[in-house]
Structure formats: structure tokens, C-alpha cells
Give the backbone structure.
Amino acid sequence: MLVTHLCRVPLHEHKFQCPLDTAPATAPSERAVSRAAAGAEPPPAPHMLHITASALVGRTALPQPLHPLTLAAIGDWPAPTGSLYKGDVRATLHVSDPGASKVEAVIWWRRRDAHPERKAVLVTDDKANPISLLAPPLVSGPCGVLSFVPNGAALYHVYYLPYHQSGTGAQLHFHWYNCTDRHDRSCAMASRPLAAQPQQPASSPAACTAPAAAGTVRAAVVAIEGRQVSSSSGPADFHALSPMELVATPEERAALLASPAAG
């Protein structure tokens, strides 16, 4: 029975820790395993059972990329614009042909947050200049696809958890950028009404495995970067993702559950 490297993740928390040396979570029920193998969502309350990508290394082949995690240099992060913060994580892209007419990026961000399609995606070059997307991004939990016209730079940053925040204490106002359902705590903690915004439908992960269109340059994902901050004891990685937060894709979960080691 496979029990190692399973994390019980509180759904309402944005950050969590699940070190490798902690006691393993209780093994999933037969019903939960059959639902996971079918690609269905695990039971939502009170915790969600995740198999992380790092748990699969050495057990089964990873059919999708596992991007490296790094920390951005202190100060190498854009300041907020009013109440808009670009978030604490980003994907860094390298474009081999900065003069291309169109660039497409496929990012296997392996997200565990609820409803990632409700959150905006912002793109800048390495000087924090905003870059407009050519079309709404295709967003799913395992991955995302976006396209843009490069401005001549070779490096670009994709911020996929931007948010609005203002006020303090009981007057704290927070919501993910483009996610405005104030009654959904996975979306907002608001002290005032939020303006309605159009929501794009969830995308299928299959969009991430489609070949690039003719005449389109495919950007390379250099890393998933976390914002580094200063503390009294030196640089801190409080905002960085850990390997245990990169969730296995449905195909990887199915392959693992079908392997002899999972029986």
C-alpha cells in the first residue's frame, strides 16, 4: 500500500509545509483511489489528498516536465501598483528568438489552488514592462498555455497568482486578481463589495501537449521562481514554493496507482 509522501492540505491555506520526514498521511480509501485514477477530484472536505510530483521521482516516469524551483534575487521583484500585487511566484521564460512575431509558452506549474482558471495571468519582460497577451490564457491545475508578442527581450516573467490587497485587521480587503466572488473564501476576503468580472472557462490539460502553431516560437521555462525577502537572520524563502507543493498530473497519478508498488 502506497502511503509515503502524501500530504493532507487544508483547502483554505495558501501556504503549507509537508516535510519529507513527517509521518505519512493515512492511506486513501479504495473509493478515493478509484476516483483519483479516473481523474476525478478527491473528496473536498475537510482536506484534499494530493500526490506530489516529487513523490513520483524514481517510482514512475514523469510524462510532463517538472520545472526547477529557484529564488529570485532580493529586489528583483516588481513593486505593487496601488493595491495590485503581482504575487509571490512566477515562471521565468527564455525566448530564443526575441524578434519573433508570436511566442507561445507551456508552463507545467502543477498548481494545487482551487479554481486556478479564476485567477489572472500577468506577463512582464525582465525589466518589469507589461506584456499583453494575444488571447486569454488556457489555464488548468496541471499547466497553462499563453501567447504574446515579444518586445525584443529574451527573458519574461509570468505571474500566475496576482492579487489585490489593502487595509488591515478587520478592514483587510484581499482577492485574487480577476477572482471576485466575495462569498468564496478560496477567492476573496473582502470588507467591501467586489466588481463582477468575466470568468474564463477551465481549460483541459490536453491543451498543454498540443504542438505549437506554425510560425510560433515556443518559449523555454527556465524555472518557477519565488519572491525572496529580507529578515533579521538574512534572506528568507517564506514566499517560495516547496517541491511538496508541485502536484502530480492526472496522468502521473493514474500511472502511479496502476503500478505494482501502489498495490
About this structure: Residues 1-49 have pLDDT under 50 and may be disordered. Residues 9 and 48 are 6 Å apart (CA to CA). Helices lie at 30-37, 250-257.
